[in-house]
Amino acid sequence: MVFELKSIYKDYMQGKEAVPVLKDITMSVDEGEYVAIMGPSGSGKSTLMNIIGCLDKQTKGFFIFDKTDVMSCSDKELSEIRNNKIGFVFQNFNLLPRQSALENVELPLLYAGVPKKERKERAIAALKRVGLEDRMYFKPTQLSGGQKQRVAIARAIVNKPRLLLADEPTGALDTKSGDQVMELFKELNDEGVTVVMITHEPDIAKCAKRVMYIRDGQLHDGAFNTRAAGADQPAAASETAAEAAPASGTEEAAEA
User: Fold this and answer.
1) Please, which residues bridge with residue 35 across strands?
2) Residue 90: beta bridge partners?
3) Nearest-5° angle of CA 121, CA 130, CA 184?
4) Among 175, 176, 200, 196, which Cα is nearest to 185's?
5) Which segments of the chain have a pLDDT < 50?
6) Residue 40: its pLDDT value, please?
7) What is the spatial distance between Cα 153 and Cα 105, in angstroms, rounded to a whole number?
8) Which residues contact 127 (CB under 8 A, 6 or more apart)?
9) Spatial separation of the C-alpha atoms in residues 195 and 162, rounded to whole Å
10) DSSP of 71-109, one letter per residue?
11) What pLDDT, on a 0 to 100 scale, did the predictor assign at position 221?
C-alpha cells in the first residue's frame, strides 16, 4: 500500500470559528493504482491533494504514507517525503523560467544531495523517457505548453517516487497536448508507477482505472473504469463533475 487515509477531517479557522473543509475522508491507494479524484469547485479536492502530497496536515484522523504516520512528522521529515517519495505535476508547470529543462529536472536530485554526474545522467534519462531529449537545454519560454508539462513530468519521476500526484495536469493545455500527456501517464502507470490525479474533466478522469468523487468535503467511490482496465465499456462520469472548475497549482510544491 502506498498510502491510507482514515477518518480525515480538515478545518480552517476564520476568526474564532472552525470551518470544516474535509469530513470523514477514508481512502487507500495500492502500489500500481491509477486513481482520479473529481469534484466541483470548493468541494475540498485541492485541500485533499495538499494532504496526500504532505503539503498540509489534517486536523484529525490518520494518514499513513509508505508506512509513516504523517501527523507525527516534523517539517523536515515532511520535506524529505515530498522530495523522495512524491512526484508533483501541476496545471501551471511550476518550472523555473531561467533554468533549462535539464536543470529543472535535476532540481529534486540536487535537493536530495545526488552527485552532479549522476544527477545529470538521471535527468537526461527522465527527459528521454518523456520524449524531450532534443529539448533538454531549452528554457521554458522556448517550449510549448505540452513540452513544459512533459518537463514537469520528467522532474516528477526523476527520483522514482512512490506516488505521482497530478493536479489538473491538462488544465493549461490544448486538446492534442492534453491527450499526449494522458497517454504518457498511462504508459507510466503500465510500467508500475502509482498515479493519483485531481481533475474536473470527465474525459480526463476516465483515463484512470478508478474514479472517486468529492463533494462538500466528503469522498465517494466511483465505478471501476473498465475501459482503462482493458475492457469494453467506460465507467460513467458524475454529472456534477462537469460543472467543476480547475484547481490552481500549489506554488510551494515547485521545490518539493
Assistant:
1) 196, 210
2) 167
3) 145
4) 196
5) 226-227, 231-256
6) 84
7) 9
8) 101, 102, 105, 133, 135, 136, 151, 154
9) 9
10) GG--HHHHHHHHHHHEEEEETT----TTS-HHHHHHHHH
11) 85
